[in-house]
Amino acid sequence: MRRFAFLLALTVGAAAAAPLVVQKNGDLYLDSRNQSVRLTTYGRNFNPVVSPDGRWVAYLSFPAWVQGGGYLATNVWVMNLQSRTARRLADQPAGASNAGLFVCRDLLSWSTDGRTVAWLEWRLSGPDTLPAEETVLVTRSVSGAERREVRVHLAPGLTGWSADDIFTQLLGVRYQGRLEGNTLSLTVTRDRTGRTPPLQVKVDVETGLLREVHSGSVAPVHPGGSGRS
């Protein structure tokens, strides 16, 4: 998906009160009716997700060495929208490279109290090497002080899924995520026509157990679902 070719906007909470953060040509802007304030200048940032309290924006970023297309290395950042200071929550492992081992991250989601960011990540050995060996759920506080991770595994009896290919089964064109208590809830839209019912899953933060729930009418609002360029 060519993320840099589109203008992507996200609002959270009440439309009149929440900040509006948009992506333009690989950078983030804080938009209002009267002005647009540039938040980043890196040129490789995407998928902004504003916290429920409107204080923070989490976003994904390609490392400087990333080239080409396919499933690419991605890092996680958060920015305080008042001070405009940013902090990296997830980097690449030592020795990571475009053609070697790297970590692809996606499906950024906020906790309901705006203090923790959750995401899923996969270790890949190249941009076209799928399936990923394992799917990991990571949660980290905005301060960076607290971090937890757990390997995701399928609930017993879950049909239509492959335990060694959870990555591709969560791909989509849009998604909605929420971390509430020990549960990460994801709603993924897998086509642009709306003909396919959205995929709805819940993942236990402590055990990593993934279970599918019935499709509903919730409209996903975040771009993404793959870390693919």
UniProtKB/TrEMBL annotation:
Transmembrane segments annotated in the record for this chain: 56-78
Question: What keywords are assigned to this protein?
Answer: Membrane, Plasmid, Signal, Transmembrane, Transmembrane helix
Q: Which domain of life is it from?
A: Bacteria
Gene3D superfamilies, alphabetized: TolB, C-terminal domain
Q: Which residues form the signal peptide?
A: 1-17
UniProt keyword Amino-acid biosynthesis, yes or no: no
The protein depicted here goes by the name Translocation protein TolB
The species this protein belongs to is Deinococcus sonorensis KR-87
Q: What lineage, starting at the top, does this entry show? A: Bacteria, Thermotogati, Deinococcota, Deinococci, Deinococcales
